[in-house]
Write a structure and sequence with these properties.
About 45% of the residues lie in helices and about 25% in strands. It is an alpha/beta fold. The protein folds into two domains: about 1-120 and about 245-270, Rossmann fold; about 120-240 and about 280-295, Dihydrodipicolinate Reductase, domain 2 (2-Layer Sandwich).
């Protein structure tokens, strides 16, 4: 499968390009970026052409891999899907539900396969845990804490403008939701409150009555970084296991999933555009709850 890579930043060059180049059934066929010089440099590294026109790259490939800010990603994904190209996308799918719906509509109109790279979900350990937790059932809710520290001269994301503007809710919130939703089901109502250093405290009400909490930031003091996600219910506590492997390995599994869907004609493998749209709906509702200081229903 010939992939066009959209993006030239750290995630595009060190994860997407590396994973596609290493994958036995995938070929990196070209690069497009908003900065033509960076696109040329990345393309030279992998011996492929750099494209000045995004639609020309879409036309030249079988699938697109997008590692761009979510507002830029959504437009390219919709155009690629409308052209019949399969999609390997990043989270979050978009910054508005309207744009996420546009991507979903394009994939459903043409029948292309889509995989959204929720990193946690492309781990055998995590997937086995989620399957077991779903079978067990009886969960009353979950608590999740994700305190990251990504700002600083040694971080590849220090200059990421969209992360600075949108914060932890949109950057790492999707990771937590990608694990909570398969076990606890759809979120129907949310509330939120801000804290110091970009902390967002979120309360989620799920359709079956379970309640979950998320606490997250991208700007934790280095000594206060933390990650934990645990479900609680009739069977006690169940903590999400650590993931083995790096991001390139995980993206290789996402590529496997996309190839499987293309080859078999199956769709909806768990992390498709429709699932990512539902995550976007929750994020948009939380953003409204933070701004307006009220409980907000999640759009269906």
């Amino acid at each position: 499968m010939r992939f066009g890579l959209f993006g030239t930043g750290h995630w595009a060059s060190h994860t997407h390009a590396a994973a596609i180049d290493a994958h036995p059934r995938s070929t990196l066929a070209g690069v497009w970026g908003r900065d033509p010089e960076k696109a040329e440099a990345l393309a030279r590294r992998y011996g492929v052409p750099a494209f000045r026109d995004a639609d020309a790259l879409i036309e030249a490939v079988d699938a697109v891999a997008v590692a761009l800010p979510p507002d830029v990603q959504a437009d390219i994904a919709a155009r690629a899907a409308a052209a019949g190209r399969h999609l390997l996308l990043d989270k979050p799918l978009a910054l508005t539900l309207a744009e996420a719906d546009r991507v979903v509509a394009a994939t459903e109109a043409t029948g292309v396969a889509s995989v959204v790279f929720f990193t946690f979900r492309f781990s055998p350990e995590v997937e086995a845990f989620l399957a077991s937790a779903t079978t067990t059932g009886g969960w009353h809710g979950a608590r999740a804490t994700f305190f990251a520290s990504i700002y600083g001269p040694d971080s590849p994301y220090d200059s990421s403008q969209w992360r600075r503007e949108q914060g932890a809710l949109w950057d790492i919130g999707p990771h937590l939701l990608s694990v909570l939703l398969p076990v606890l089901g759809p979120v129907v109502e949310v509330a939120a409150m801000d804290g110091p250093r970009g902390i967002v405290q979120v309360l989620l009400k799920h359709a079956d009555g379970a309640a979950a909490t998320m606490a997250l930031t991208l700007d934790a003091p280095p000594a206060a970084t933390a990650f934990e996600l645990a479900f609680h219910g009739e069977s006690g506590l169940a903590r999400l296991p650590s993931r083995d492997g790096d991001a390139v390995t995980a993206l290789g599994l996402a590529l496997d999933q996309l190839h499987h869907e293309v080859e078999t004609g199956s769709r909806g493998g768990g992390c498709d555009a429709r699932f990512a749209r539902d995550v976007t709906a929750v994020l948009e509702a939380v953003a409204t709850a933070r701004t307006e200081g009220r409980t907000v229903r999640v759009a269906v």
